[in-house]
Design goal:
156 residues, alpha/beta, six-stranded mixed sheet, 26% helix, hydrolase activity, AB_hydrolase_1, AB_hydrolase_fold, AB hydrolase-1 domain-containing protein
Length: 156
């Protein structure tokens, strides 16, 4: 795919798979959904790079070509938040535009809320701004058949 470069970077003890294209000084970080990987964003990354930005997508821990944590049952959304910030630190990116789809939008929401100084802008696709927690995802407000609800196990 049009000069997308792949590498692995060590982030918080795990090797995360990184895909990037473009050399602009402004960076757009694409956050994939579930059960997806960086590849979801390949066309958008090329378009963003052609518009003059540096476009980066990565596979979250446990997804795609990234390492799975040693104890995945102990992982939570904070791990994804910390991984994202650690990735920005490693790549010396002080401020970023975030684009997140469903699961990735939740991670993006957390980054935007907890690290406002690191976020130049935030686009969420598929779901509204949500933070995890007991009141975070409000299934009763979603339309019948909404795709996130179909992935969840609901008690009968």
């Amino acid at each position: 795919m049009e000069a997308i470069k792949h590498s692995h970077v060590q982030v918080r003890g795990l090797n995360l798979h990184l895909a990037e294209i473009g050399t602009g000084s402004e960076v757009v970080l694409f956050l994939h959904g579930f059960p997806e990987i960086w590849y979801t964003w390949r066309h958008q990354m090329v378009a963003v790079a052609k518009a003059g930005y540096r476009a980066i997508g990565f596979d979250f821990r446990g997804y795609g070509l990234s390492d799975q944590p040693a104890e995945p049952d102990k992982a939570n959304f904070l791990d994804f938040l910390h991984d994202t910030i650690a990735l920005l630190d490693l790549l010396a990116i002080p401020k970023v535009y975030l684009v997140g789809k469903d699961f990735g939008a939740i991670v993006g929401s957390m980054v935007a809320a907890a690290h406002q100084d690191r976020v130049a802008g935030f686009i969420t696709l598929g779901i509204p701004f949500l933070l995890p927690g007991p009141d975070g995802i409000r299934n009763h407000l979603m339309p019948n058949g909404f795709y996130i609800n179909r992935w969840q196990v609901m008690p009968i």
